[in-house]
Amino acid sequence: MRxxxxxxxxxxxxxDGTMLDTVPDFELALNAMRAEFSLAPITQDVIKPMVGxxxxxxxxxxxxxxxxxxxxxxxxxxxxxxxxxHYLAINGERSVLFDGVIEGLRALRELGxxxxxxxxxxxxxxxxxxxxxxxxxxxxxxxGGDSLPKKKPDPLPLLQVCSDFDLPPPQVVAIGDSSNDAExxxxxxxxxxxxxxxxxxxxxxxxxxxDGIVNSLLDAAKLIRAHNGx
Length: 230
What we know:
The protein is an alpha/beta fold. It has helices at residues 23-36, 44-47, 55-63, 69-90, 101-110, 123-132, 156-165, 179-188, 217-228, and strands at residues 10-13, 20-21, 96-97, 114-118, 141-143, 172-176, 191-194. It has 9 helices and 7 strands. The strands form 2 sheets. The chain has a 5-stranded parallel sheet with strand order 5-4-1-6-7, with helices on both faces. Helix 6 (123-132) links the parallel strand 4 and strand 5. Helix 1 crosses helix 4 (69-90) and helix 3 (55-63) packs across helix 4 (69-90).
């Protein structure tokens, strides 16, 4: 993080791959959907690089493993409905918190930071998941991938949070696991920190243009504290 820059007053935190390992839930829901089309199950290793760009692309990418473009278009609506039905039924059942998440959120709050969760996950999946895992009380704002006209990597969701908090983007940091988070933050003129344990569409986190790699949200809080001179 740049020396001499303004103090950080808020953090925008991603969900999948940053706070929660949700791939086990995706495995259950996607394979239940695939079974309705008599398709063979796929593994978490196949699913993980597909996560993070929203449900629409996820379903198309999963169908593309077996179907051509015309067939995907023909069954897409049915497949999406099946996926949403199955995901809502198992939402959070096998997802687990990454290390340091609760401790990190507490530390960020103790620094006086305002917190928002911005994810490309549909809001109907996001809200109950945050509540189930004990994360909801930490966030003033939550935006899902379908809450606004555009999703990450577009900067709109981050700029919306800055507006809601009445803070200039240089006083806000985005924390995530993927290039989506970094590209959105750069375009919004926010700081961005990345965690190395997430998904990042199957690419090494070191390839991301960020202001630093932190091993946990707790480490992110420590870095922000040092930046702020607290």
